[in-house]
C-alpha cells in the first residue's frame, strides 16, 4: 500500500512537471519553457505511513 501510494504521488508530480515545462519528459519542443534538473527526495507523512516522494527539480524557478 505504501509503495502504491508513493508511485501514485510521483506520477502526479511528474505529470504536473510536464505541464509546467510545456513538454513531456524526454521530448523536445519549441514551446518548452523549462527543463528538469533531477529530483529531490522528501518524506511525506500520510495516514497510511511515511512515503518517500521524488519532487522534480527545474533548472529555472521552482516546482512547488
Topology (SSEs and partners):
Layout: H1 2-21, E1 36-45, E2 50-58
Concise synopsis of the structure shown:
This protein has 64 residues and is an alpha+beta fold. It is built from 1 helix and 2 strands, in the order H-E-E. It has one helix at residues 2-21; strands spanning 36-45, 50-58.
How would you describe this structure in keywords?
about 60 residues, about 30% strand, 2 strands, alpha+beta, 1 helix, two-stranded antiparallel sheet
- What's the mean pLDDT score? 75
The number of helical segments is 1
Give a short account of the largest sheet: 2 strands, antiparallel
- Please list the strands of the largest sheet in the order they lie side by side: 1-2
Which percent bin holds the helix content?
Answer: 25-40%
Q: How do the helices and strands follow one another from N- to C-terminus?
A: HEE
- Domain tally: 1
- Number of beta-strand segments: 2
The Rg value, from CA coordinates, equals: 13 Å
Q: Work out the strand percent.
A: 25-35%
Low-confidence stretches: none
Which structural category fits the helices and strands?
alpha+beta
**What best-fitting shape do the alpha-carbon axes yield?**
elongated
Gap between N and C termini: 25 Å
Amino acid at each position: 500500500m505504501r509503495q502504491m501510494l508513493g508511485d501514485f504521488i510521483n506520477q502526479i508530480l511528474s505529470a504536473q512537471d510536464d505541464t509546467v515545462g510545456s513538454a513531456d519528459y524526454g521530448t523536445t519542443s519549441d514551446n518548452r519553457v523549462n527543463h528538469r534538473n533531477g529530483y529531490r527526495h522528501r518524506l511525506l507523512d500520510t495516514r497510511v505511513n511515511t512515503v518517500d516522494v521524488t519532487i522534480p527539480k527545474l533548472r529555472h524557478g521552482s516546482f512547488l
